[in-house]
TrEMBL record:
Recorded superkingdom: Bacteria
PANTHER family referenced in this protein's UniProt entry, alphabetically: PROTEASE SYNTHASE AND SPORULATION PROTEIN PAI 2
InterPro entries: Split_barrel_FMN-bd, TR_PAI2-type
Name recorded for this polypeptide: Transcriptional regulator
Origin species: Halomonas halmophila
């Protein structure tokens, strides 16, 4: 990923925040036949417990996924790249005060993204898979007034569903983020982007601040 210094996301905590806010990832792997594969799935971050361990991402894929036999054949797993897309938006030059002053403006696209590189392995353990599914459920049901729980479904039904999937764990070797939000523009231009995102696209205050360099 091209990383101009003014857009580079330097802090680990900032990258983790993007993952937490946008957990639906694109997982890129290299299958045994040399073909690149991309799977789209939610991944949960498990920060390292101490200095001797690494941060991890956990999730699951269908047992029928071609990725499964590929990883089964590898003794130490395989290389993988997980991409997390945070807020993003088209920015029209019509918002810029400079358009009215001299017209030397062009469109752009502002965004946040995090790339996570690491080693991916399968975990085909019923207890682990159930714990992971429970953690995913709690993560995405937690904000609801009446959250659904895994225990709400019949136990044999959940067991059957879990047999159809395989757990995955990505041990993070390095992580990098990019936050392109017109940071190099003037305060007047960033304010105009913020107002345009709210007015024309209906973006929330947080999204608009994130994408206009005001956060």
């Amino acid at each position: 990923m091209h990383q101009p210094s003014r857009f580079r996301m330097e802090q680990r905590d900032d990258c983790h925040r993007v993952i937490a806010e946008a957990p639906f990832a694109t997982l890129v792997t290299n299958l045994a036949d040399g073909q690149l594969s991309a799977d789209h799935l939610p991944l949960l971050l498990q920060p390292a417990e101490d200095d001797r361990s690494r941060d991890r991402l956990i999730g699951h894929v269908a047992r029928a996924n071609p990725l499964v036999p590929c990883l089964e054949a590898a003794d130490d797993g395989g290389d993988a790249l997980a991409i997390f897309h945070g807020p993003h938006a088209y920015v029209t030059p019509s918002w810029y005060p400079a358009k009215r002053e001299h017209g030397r403006v062009v469109p752009t696209w502002n965004y946040q993204v995090v790339h996570v590189h690491g080693r991916l392995r399968l975990i085909d353990d019923p207890d682990w898979v159930l714990d992971m599914v429970t953690a995913l459920t709690e993560r995405f049901e937690g904000g609801r007034s009446s959250p659904w729980r895994v225990e709400d479904a019949p136990e044999d039904y959940i067991a059957g569903m879990c047999r159809a999937i395989v757990g995955i764990e990505l041990t993070i070797e390095w992580i990098t983020g990019k936050h392109k939000a017109s940071q190099h523009k003037s305060p007047e231009e960033r304010n105009a982007i913020h107002e345009g995102l709210c007015r024309e696209y209906g973006r929330t205050e947080w999204e608009a601040a994130c994408l206009s360099g005001r956060q």
